[in-house]
Amino acid sequence: MTSVADPALETARPHQPSLADRFVGRRYVQLVVVLGALMAIGPLTIDTYLPALPQLSAEMGASDAQAQLTITGLLLGLGLGQLIIGPLSDTVGRRRPLLIGLAAHGVMSLLCAVAPSIGLLSATRTLQGVAGAAVSVVVMAIVRDLFTGVRAAQLLSRLMLVLGVAPILAPSLGSALLTVTSWRGIFVLLAVAAVGLWLLAWRALPETLPAYRRRPATVRGSLQSYGRLFADRTFLVMVAVAGLTFATLFAYIAGGPFILQGRFGLSPQQFGVAFSANAAGMILMTQLNPVLVARFGPVRVMSVAVLIAASGATALLVTNLTGFGGLAGFLVPMAVILSAAGLTVPNAPAIALSRHGEVAGTAAALLGAAQFLIAGSVAPLVGALDDGSGVPMAALMVATTGLVATLFWTARRRLINSSEAVDQDQSLAHA
Description:
This protein has about 425 residues and is mainly α. It has 17 helices and no strands.
């Protein structure tokens, strides 16, 4: 691993070679592995204890909706925390907020493990989300520090390979842990993971925001940065698209455990297998994405993906209303939706962040906050409307995927023109 002491990155000036040129070959692979491992802390925090939700509800005497609030609190913390940490990372650099956030995540995980009530668990999960926000926003900002356009989409797709292992393994890992410990032991494992990632980041991840590119630490400066972002309607469209896509995924995360284990009678172990099998399609698509964006560009790839997702959600609603296909009638449309998300999740942020490299941390914060806040608003709706049939969850997915398709296709021409201009600028910069 490369030492954190990397003076070249810290003291670079505009006339020197691009930072991206230094991450080639083995160093590029190392960057993918490190950033992917850091991104995995979010899915691990969310998904590992999903099989334990029914157990947690029974132990604490909580309703399904109350148990799902522990997911909502986490998502809200992840969203709101990014709005503060993003501008901060534009001021002090990327490493310091990242390391502090990982340390705080470990502490909050231990507090979750000893929480005596569902209310306190929801509160500590929210604080755990705030700590995790530092990881989410810094990783996205680092990607924008180094790359833009097609190259950013390709890097995010590679990250999704590493990131995708987490949602595939996490439910199965949680199910296995439940055979030897309770849901509290899962949070102890998350604390250990946070410590390991802190050591990895401290040793292997250099600073990617040189001092000359940092912005003054003022409230006015942060507000001006956000004002510039809110004035960009095309950027806001992509923020909404990314947020609604996350809402689709988290509707499944919030409702899936109860539908698969309640309605279809799967054991925690069988649920882990089913959840992992569905996630495999998403991972496959993320790895096909670099090939597709190199040939067609991220905007054209997303043009098809959003329509596929909406079609899959419609099919899911029909099968839940009619009962057609039983378990397969639930899992197959979900696999279609998740596979389409594998083409949207890496491309939406790449398109959005390519427009505002001068405030990458702030832009990543607004993007990430929208993702988690919108997703966090959907999760409790799934619990509140749940009637055991899966119809409310499917209806919400129809609404979110339909809005994504409508927003994206409304702005598609502007996005194509903007994306082509960014790629031309990047090509000139590397010439």
